[in-house]
Amino acid sequence: MLTIVQNLITGINGFAASHLCDLLLANGEDVIGVARDPSKNENIKHHGDRVRVLQCDVGSWEEIHQVLSKTRPQRIYHMASLSYVPTAHLNWREAFQTNVFGTLHLFEAVREHEIDARIMCVGSSEEYGVIFQEDLPVRESNPLKPVTLYGVTKASAGLLANSFVHREGLDVISVRPFNHTGPRQSDRFVCSSFARQIVEIELGRRGFLMVGNLDAERDFMDVRDTVKAYRVLMERGDRGGVYNVCSGKTVSIRNIVDIFRTIAEKPFEVKCETSRFRSERPVHSYGDHSLLTMRTGWSPEITLEQSLRDVYLYWKERLTKNQEDKKH
């Protein structure tokens, strides 16, 4: 008899979590989601009643305790997070409550209720912090020297994962994703911000593209490749393992703008705004995914050009629809 895998995704309304939901459902698995506000379901509403979403603030011990005692999932993807670096800095109490205590609450609930679940703790490349040229590519063995408060919260959650693996015997895998983009990403992030601005230029709503440091080089990949890595690691990753999820190469922000020039329907002017520079981040950074690839056979498949085109088309459809709705 075929057994259907029962998954629980925290923060299911989020960008990457919604794409993971797509992938799991496409593979015939069951998905239960938790969200602080289930009504904010723009990213998953296309699934209708195929996904049951429960109200839960992971920062509340009582709420996560109640959800896990009722659902008892086989696999837990812990993706609930205050994930935008500047927001985490401004709202540091909420960042620590969600990213650190939310993780602690989840682990404690699994332990207390003796739930036989594999847990994926989704961290961030921000955990590595200060990166020098001789540190590249960034490997899982690199020391954690987070600079941003967001990075500190994610490193703390990763340390909690290690503690619960070795002290309580929980089955936890940790991942450190680097930059990923794709449809549904918030326009607070660089690729999605550029795509939205370009569509607004084409619709006559703005005059130019505002950018930050064009010479910065980052490791970018498609969110759909990212969540494929999550799923295959859930199946094949080592208990207590830590894995980078990245493309393994850099691309400059200038090159991203150039790619968007080939995608856009109209030419656009670029203006640099120094307030968009992030001084706490290294100018050049990229990861090494060889450990992930060796363990699972995974490798990124979607080109950056395709990712950026899909982000552009996402914003074009969304903003054009909004403009049409206002006419009627």
Q: Could you characterize the architecture of this molecule?
A:
Helices cover 42% and strands 16% of the residues. It is globular and about 60 Å long. The chain folds into two domains: 201 residues, Rossmann fold, CATH 3.40.50; 88 residues, UDP-galactose 4-epimerase, domain 1. The chain is built from ten helices and 13 strands. The mean pLDDT is 94. It is α/β, with parallel strands linked by helices and 328 residues long. Helix 1 links the parallel strand 1 and strand 2. The strands form four sheets. The chain has a seven-stranded parallel β-sheet with strand order 3-2-1-4-5-6-11, sandwiched between helices.
SSE topology sketch:
Blueprint: E1 6-10, H1 15-26, E2 30-35, E3 52-55, H2 61-71, E4 75-78, H3 85-90, H4 92-112, E5 118-122, H5 149-168, E6 171-177, E7 179-181, H6 190-202, E8 209-211, E9 217-218, E10 220-222, H7 223-236, E11 242-245, E12 251-252, H8 253-263, E13 270-272, H9 290-296, H10 304-327
Parallel strand pairs: 1-2, 1-4, 2-3, 4-5, 5-6, 6-11, 7-10, 8-13
Antiparallel strand pairs: 9-12
Helix pairs in contact: 1-7, 2-4, 4-5, 6-10, 8-10
